[in-house]
Amino acid sequence: MRIFHVFLMTMALLLTPAIARAQGAFGSGAPHIAARLASESAMPAPGKDTAIAFAMEPEAGWHGYWENPGDAGLGMTVKWTLPKGVSVGALRYPVPETLMISGLMNHVYEGPYAVLAPLTVAADVPAGTRLPIRVRADWLACTDKICVPEGADLTLDLVAGDGQVQRADRARFDAWCTHLPRPLGAQASYAMTNGRLHMAIPFPARAQANDVHLFPLAEGFTRYAALQKARREGDRLLIETDAAQGFRGGPMQAVLRTGDHVGFLLTATPGPVPAPQDGAMRTVFIALAGAILGGLLLNIMPCVFPILGLKALSLARAGGNEREVRHEALAYAAGVIATCLALGGALLALRGAGAAAGWAFQLQDPRIILLLLLLVTAIAFNLAGLFDLGGFGGGERLAARGGTIGSFWTGALVAFVATPCTGPFMGAAMGTALVLPVGAALAIFAGLGLGLALPFVLLAYLPALRSRLPRPGPWMARVQRIFAIPMFLTALGLAWLLGQQRGVPAMTLGLGAALLLALLLWWLGRRQHSGRGGGGLVLLGALALLGGGMALLPKQAPAVTLASGAIPFDEARLASLRAAGKPVFLYFTADWCLTCKANEAAAIDRAETRAAFEKAGVTVMVGDWTNADPAITRFLEGQGRSGVPLYLWYAPGREARALSQLLTVSTLTALVP
């Protein structure tokens, strides 16, 4: 309907001036919204401002539009012709009304209204100078059935003078100014969860607020026709409504209506918003359960399971020493939980500072990947028996008896490399954490760490489970060597990821640094076998390799290679495809996300899926989040998610449908007829 209105306006303006004004298109030839230009002072003072106004008066049954007209309509456009030394500022609209027509929300004025603007006369304009003000104004006049583009050439003849204002003019402009939104004076915050926009607005408890409605100044924030739920909570006004499809994110300006043509102009930025009291605890508990379950699932990752196995072997070595076993388990759990809290706190701080960051932000930095590559390489060679970690002077081995300090840092490493791969139950929990108050959000991040550490803690605190572990013996050394294999594979995966982020030169640099580190560790192992040290020198060498590698990493990311027939994510392209009635399968992935890669191999990049999509004319759109991408981050936020994977199906003429995070070929082929 908006496009139809634009077309009408454009065609009318291209025709003759008489028709362009559209004043005789219907009825007696008079416009359906009469307009005149008025000035607060007929003699504005040089060097000072005065107010001018478009006084608009719609006929009964007709209405004009606010600057953001909503789902349909057009605001007023003006083109000024001004004398030298005179300037006019931006238009200031009064607080609008809502009008729902055929499921479309319109932001309108159904009675007389005035659009104001500041007029400034330069200080060097001599008194007595004539100031002819000319403006071409065009607007749309509508009923609930038809719309007519209208316009007028308006004039106002002023004279530079002393700025005197007549009593009648002052009363009239004062009345108009009472309908303008006033600056709120405090910043609001908003958050997204599952496609819903939650906003917290500072508003004194004693202040009246009736018929509350939020009018965004720009498109892309809310779905205009959606119901807006407003409630008071102390000195805050909380509003909940549907977010716009493809929510744009960033700072949001809006007018908050709190009465009949009374309202406030506010700015809202992303931040914590309290959940409704009746559902807050339920929301937190559901998200916490999802985080714990997701953490449990992360234990089967190839870079986590070997370390968990080694920790289990350390319990077998400990025998019946319950105190030692439990201390080690608590240290491991403390390392996991502390790291999850640190990552969660850093994420909340980045987002609070306005950065478009999401869960797993640490693996979007190639320097972190290089650090992990060297660390995992060292762990793999330690498990393979090349050297002894005790030689570094760190106190205890990674999984050694009595190693509470080693257990803590082992837990920290596990959490750091495991948490980016959100499990099937973790995506919604992490998305929810980002819209809850800081305390509740950190509790969910801690729940993720608890789930990740829980298997080892249960083994430590349940002797019946631990008694099922095999007795210590020579087999433990062989198992430790076997566990080195998935760690080497993890190192290769990190090198590949480095190449995906910064190209083949970065992968070559990473593999070269890992090879040099292996030579240093071999040298250390040889010295340890002869009873000598050298761990400090190797540590310094490893730090030098890391620093040099970080400095030499390429700065630019290579072009993303997509699957055959797929197109890169573009919000404008998505909107265009949907407007054309095309089915779209949109998915977000990252090379460091194992769940994403598994789904692509098992379901998306399969011949059966491609054939079904091609037959139905489905456009496959891919959002690659391997490197940080603010546009993708904002879109994920709009869907109530903080990380990948995310799979969305857009059937023609319908809203997005979120698919399961575990896909099969039948799941995808069933989407199309």
Automatic annotation (TrEMBL):
A Pfam family reported for this protein in Swiss-Prot or TrEMBL: DsbD_TM
A cellular component term, taken from the record's GO annotations: plasma membrane
UniProt main location, coarse: membrane
A single GO BP: cytochrome complex assembly
Keyword Transmembrane listed: yes
Keywords (A to Z) from UniProt: Cell membrane, Cytochrome c-type biogenesis, Membrane, Signal, Transmembrane, Transmembrane helix
Thioredoxin domain location: 551-673
Subcellular location: Cell membrane
GO molecular function, one term: protein-disulfide reductase activity
Membrane topology field: Multi-pass membrane protein
Annotated signal sequence range: 1-22
Keyword Transmembrane annotated: yes
TM helices/strands, residue ranges: 284-308, 329-348, 368-386, 438-462, 482-498, 504-524, 536-553
Protein name as annotated: Thiol:disulfide interchange protein
Lineage of source species: Bacteria, Pseudomonadati, Pseudomonadota, Alphaproteobacteria, Sphingomonadales
